[in-house]
Design brief:
Layout (H helix, E strand, L loop, with lengths): L4 E2 L20 H14 L4 E3 L9 E5 L12 E21 L9 E14 L5 E7 H14 L10 H15 L9 E2 L5
Parallel strand pairs: 1-7
Antiparallel strand pairs: 2-3, 3-4, 4-5, 5-6
């Protein structure tokens, strides 16, 4: 099932997601639906709040990046906890399916260690670096009500105010289903 993606301005994107109790929801089905939704929108990461579900789950499929170092990395992260972030800070232009048409530089640390469960409820603790670490940090932020625009300077936010307002109204040129909070 392909869900509509919640757009910037919807309050669900600014709320902290709740942990998932084992057996409380069909993780396998939700994960499959999120991968399908993400693929339909040509994304590489999608967090549950972006489809209106306030649970601590996100999915990643880095294969569209066609990066030899990353390969065909595809994973579901349930109840993730970033244990440690380390390394050098690096800037990179990020975008978001909930904020289409806007890409801005965000500074993040290059490495992380994360604990999580996969869709079969198997526990993992892994380290990631580079682009995978960045994607994980971006999606993890969604579970805490943080958007990449929250890292921008007040000046940059003022410049983007009109475009962000249009996104909230559903005035976007994209080819995937959306749920815009101010769409009439």
């Amino acid at each position: 099932m392909v869900y509509p993606i919640v757009m910037y301005g919807d309050p669900v994107l600014k709320k902290k997601a709740s942990p998932i109790e084992k057996g409380s929801i069909d993780i396998e089905q939700l994960s499959d639906d999120m991968f399908e939704t993400m693929k339909a929108a040509n994304g590489i990461g999608l967090a549950a709040p972006q489809i209106g579900k306030l649970v601590r789950l996100f999915v990643l499929d880095a294969s569209p990046l066609e990066d030899e170092e990353i390969g065909d990395f595809r994973q579901t992260f349930v109840n993730p906890v970033i244990v440690e972030e380390s390394g050098n800070e690096w800037k990179f232009e990020e975008g978001c399916l909930s904020i289409p048409g806007i890409r801005e530089e965000v500074t993040r640390l290059e490495k992380l260690k994360i604990k999580y469960f996969d869709q079969e409820w198997v526990a993992h603790e892994e380290e990631f670096d580079g682009m995978l670490a960045r994607i994980i940090q971006h999606e993890y932020d969604h579970l805490n009500g943080v958007l990449f625009t929250d890292y921008l300077s007040p000046f940059k936010k003022r410049i983007l105010k009109g475009r962000l307002g249009n996104i909230s109204k559903g005035k976007v040129d994209i080819d995937y289903r959306i749920k815009a909070p101010l769409k009439k």
